[in-house]
Amino acid sequence: MSEHEHGPREPGRTCAGARLHIVTGKGGTGKTTVAAALARALASDGGRVLLVEVEGRQGVSTLFGVPPLPYEEREIDSVPGGGSVFALAADAEAALMEYLEMFYGIRRAGQALTRLGAVDFATTIAPGLRDVLLTGKATEAVRRREGGRRRPEGPFRYDAVVMDAPPTGRIGRFLNVNSEVAGLARVGPIRNHADRVMEVIRSERTRVHFVSLLEEMPAQETRDGIAEISDLGLRVGMVVVNMVRPSLLSEAGLAAAAAGEIDLEALATGLKAARLDDADALSVSLAREVTAHALRVRLERRVRGELADTGAPMLDLPLVEGGVGRAALEALTRRMIEQGVRL
Amino acid sequence: MSAERLDVDALLDDPSTRIVVCCGAGGVGKTTTAAALGLRAAERGRRTVVITVDPARRLAQSMGLASLDDTPRPVPLPEGATGSMHAMMLDMKRTFDQVVEEHADPERARQILANPFYQTLSTSFSGTQEYMAMEKLGQLRQSGEWDLIVVDTPPSRSALDFLDAPKRLGRFLDGRLVRFLSAPAPSGAFRLLGAGVGLVTSILGKVLGTQLLNDLRAFVTAFDTVFGGFQERAERTYRLLQAPGTAFVVVAAPETDALREASYFMRRLATDAMPLAGLVINRTHPLPEGAGSALDADTASASADALAAAGEHPETVAALRLHADLVRTHLRERELRDRSTADHREVPVVEVPALPEDVHDLDGLRGIGRALAGG
After folding, report:
1. Is A107 near chain B, with CB under 8 Å?
2. Do A276 and B303 touch (CB under 8 A)?
3. Which domain holds residue B312?
4. What is the DSSP letter of B2?
5. Which of B154, B236, B267, B290 lies 20 to 30 Å (CA to CA) from residue A208?
6. Between A34 and B27, where is the model more confident?
7. Are residues B138 and B105 in the same domain?
8. Is A293 on the interface with B (CB under 8 A)?
9. Residue B2 domain flag
10. Are residues B101 and B159 in the same domain?
11. 3-state secondary structure string, B255-295?
């Protein structure tokens, strides 16, 4: 695989040349934050990047500190270097109406369909229809050119599209719109639309990135997800290891602490030197914390090894203290660029 | 400031508690919480069954089972246990098939089960999983074999889906669209729709395609005569959740999204008069026991910096910095919790501290149960 040739220092190079980036991860891994930082990093060379949210949670607007996003592509950030990030909160119902109008010119029938329950059916109940509407919106943005359909050779409207996708547990079904929809429609217009969407998702210029933590469950889901995505014939991009905390202990210190062999006396001497009260009792209390930390570091290393076994390039992002705000987002963007992320 | 503590043992020991539903956002440890509650109840003497939805392999193994399936399997408890524990995994297609077989004559059942639209409906309609989880719950409740049923809810886009999806699906199956599509010729009722019937039919034909329309018509014709009141069925199980004997346990983790989701859900339970037992916050970072609890983060950091500047006692420096991190994490989590639960002060809360490793065996699960009970 070509990713390996670049070595571990520049995992982000798997992004080069890709036009659609699909970001997934177990709940709680910071998927939206990673997708936002990725969009900013891709825009850092002056590009125009669209960040698409599909879960209706308005996570993107919260993150960038802007009012809730409408169903409309809107510039939300300009990146040093002249690039800009646009955002869209894709909504299945609005996408359906748009689709009906674009292909059938029947927007006015929307009301009747709503009253019949047809819209409810298409956007919340029918398997795959909701997904194909949402992925359809993102893939349309990938294909869109300046000047519209009349200028098929015009430049692309966006240099890249980043999708904040559903969690890992549902990503295979979400992206495999063809087979999802096939149960309902083996032929016909829905199927044709699904085929067009699938063409973009299967393209060699699409990457599926996984966000994980150095914990067992998210890592297990990442490994299962990578296997599933590969089986579908889609291209796995990076594993983004999020919220990485540095170990504060030396190797020897870690080994001793994990084994529960902490030199309490030395610890207490240090605490006395720092003029802290009750140094002996404090040393016992702190030693327990150090042991718990050492056990966690040991587990994290094992988990990291298991993630590395997938063969996907791994990009580390640090834990940002005090929650993710503007400054944190900028720091994460820099870390991505340093690790080779660019258009 | 601090809410009342959730008394898990009182809840589990109360013989009138018959159903415990664990719900919350994805990734907060719902399934583990459900299994731990089930085990604790069993070891305190109750005949318990835990229904999970797609559990991690490791969790099944931690209960001493290679895998889980549609039948409640006994979990081997240590000798001397007074109660019993069974665990099962929801198989939505099988559950749906059973419902069909139970209510239709064999010929009609065969027709339904073979219909392409039914096959999609029973395996991948959003809402089917939630619907069938409720159906299964109703079945287990009726069987009378268990005196406590612990339910782990499906991983949905939103925790509210567990309450809403079954009704939505029921409404669809009973609804106008299905009747409209299945009617060979448009009937008078649809004139009320405000658009010409011909127009709507032609649009649906264009958008859906004729093959789908035909499958759907065949399905509805077979299905409708069998059931009729699909929506009513959904409402009946919904009422079961409001009945005395049901307790909701909302599960969260100390993260903004998970707590926000928990807060939505608690508000919804109150609106629908559903009995909320309490809130479980998993994976928290409590202050250390002992003398460390009195050492604040700033003092620890300053002391570490001073020692480091002098180039002395590197292991003490590391320990103090670790401690400062832990205290800051703890304070941040507490602030987050207080902010998110400000509207739900009357809801009892229990926190389960983060463990360095995931649960691997019954002992681990028992440990979680102890933490849930505050021990």
Report:
1. no
2. yes
3. 290-331
4. P
5. B154
6. A34
7. yes
8. yes
9. no
10. yes
11. CHHHHHHHHHHHHHHHHCCCCEEEEEEEEECCCCCHHHHHC
Strand segments, DSSP code E, in chain A are 20-25, 48-53, 74-79, 83-89, 160-164, 206-212, 236-244, 314-318
- Over the stretch B103-134, which tens digit does the pLDDT of each residue have? 888 998 998 899 888 888 888 777 788 888 88
DSSP string, A266-305: HHHHHHHHTT-TTHHHHHHHHHHHHHHHHHHHHHHHHHHH
Best B208, B256, B328 member to test A by mutation, with max A CBs in 10 Å, is B208
Confidence grade of residue B100 (pLDDT, cut at 50, 70, 90): confident
Kindly give the pairing relationship between strand A74-79 and strand A83-89.
antiparallel
B3 belongs to a structural domain: no
The answer on B264 and B117 residing in a single domain is yes
Contact criterion met (CB < 8 Å) for A100 and B207: yes
Query: How far A242 CA lies from chain B's nearest CA (Å)?
Result: 15
**Would you call A217 and B195 a contact, using CB atoms and an 8 Å cutoff?**
no
* Average pLDDT of span B43-54: 92
CB-nearest to A289 from B193, B195, B323 is B323
Mean residue pLDDT of chain A comes to 88
Closest by CA position to B281, among listed B341, B364, B358:
B341
Query: Is residue B231 domain-resident?
Result: yes
Residue A38 distance to chain B (closest CA, Å):
21
My answer on whether B194 and B323 are in the same domain is: no
Q: Which of A224, A238, A246 is nearest to A301 (CA)?
A: A246
Whether the CB-CB separation of B288 and A285 falls below 8 Å is answered with: yes
| Chain A CA closest to residue B166 | A125
Same domain, yes or no, for B127 and B13? yes
Number of structural domains in chain B? 2
CA–CA separation, B356 and B360 (whole Å): 12
pTM for the structure as a whole: 0.87
Share of chain A above pLDDT 70, in %: 93
**Domain assignment of residue B1, yes or no:** no
Contact A208, A24 (CB under 8 A): yes
Residues B322 and B305 in one domain: yes
- Domain CATH number, residue B128: 3.40.50.300
- For the stretch A157-179, pLDDT in tens is 999 999 999 989 889 988 988 77
